Amino acid sequence: LLSDKDRHVKAKAAGALQSLAVDEDNQKKIKALGAIPLVTKLLSSRTPEVQSNAAGCLHNLAVNDEEAQRMVADSGAVPPLVNLINTASPDLQAKAAATIWSIAGVEDNRRRIMEAGGIPSLVKVLSGKSTDAQTKASGAIRCLTMSAFTRPEFERTGAVPHLVALLSSGHQELTINAAGALENL
């Protein structure tokens, strides 16, 4: 169904996998069936619902699972996720940033994210209007800044003033992420 020609079928299939991927047993089955590369292909769909569900599925698979984090990055997901962060859609920005955040626990993935242009893209989201997208982007930034090799890129892109501004956002998770990123920098 993920390869169906009908975009509505793809959207529903990716949405179903996104929901199923919340459960640990289902995560194992989805990984074992080799669905990650198929879901990754959907990130490049022209249909926002398909893209959103695919990003959400990959996020759910990768959260707290280092093997899945590596599998998602190895499937080629990083460049299309960065492309989604660069869209005008706050939903797609949030979903893609959440997925970047969930795979950034692996240092090799942090390098891939940086090389794909993810750092300036995430920094740009910080000045947007969507609190959800800002929260996910700041979480990804917090994780990315754990590696010393990413820090000069954050300084070059002017992340610090944006992160400082978010400290007074009034949203707890956003404030915690911004403070954590600043501490790492």
TrEMBL record:
Coiled coil: none annotated. GO terms for biological process: nucleus-vacuole junction assembly. It is a lipid-anchor. InterPro entries: ARM-like, ARM-type_fold, Armadillo, Vac8. One of its GO terms (molecular function) is protein-membrane adaptor activity. ARM repeats lie at residues 1-35, 34-76, 76-118, 117-145, 158-185. It is found in: Vacuole membrane. Keywords: Lipoprotein, Membrane, Repeat, Vacuole. The keyword Cell membrane does not apply. It holds the Pfam family Arm. One of its GO terms (cellular component) is vacuolar membrane. Its main location: membrane. Belongs to the beta-catenin family. This is Vacuolar protein 8. It comes from Hemiselmis andersenii.
